[in-house]
Amino acid sequence: VTADMMARLAPYLCTTDTAAMVRINVNTLTPDDGPLLAMLAPGQLSLERARRIITARPAEGWATTTEFQAVPAVAQLLPAMNAAAQSAFDVKTDLFRLDIRVDEAGFLVTANSLIRIEGERATVLSRASRPFAAGPPATANAEPPR
After folding, report:
1. CA-based angle 113:26:52, to the nearest 5?
2. Residue 70 — φ and ψ, nearest 5°?
3. Which residues are 90's β-sheet partners?
4. 74, 101, 99, 100: which is closest to 88 by C-alpha?
């Protein structure tokens, strides 16, 4: 894998604490995420068609994976997809990435965490932080808790 290939693939890669395939929440995809959908039906689903499926999503999202798979453009692809690809869809998210950047008097710290939500329980799967002696002011516009 070349550095250029890795840079192009990086936005679509995620590692977790399990060997199980991470399911794709079809309700959070944007047209830029079309490759994630297209990869599940190689040679059958063009990038443009994947983007059209995403942009045709109902405003409230699909309630179930069955509802998503009943979309005509998706239903006609299912026979060509292997079982793993067919089970890759989801309508909820259980993995979240948290990115934090704090600037206190010129001392900058950045941190990120990968968090899994299961029911009422949140588990931190990974956490990393990087302190810097100085840096530009933080750009986040966060409101204090009420």
Report:
1. 130
2. -85, -10
3. 25
4. 74
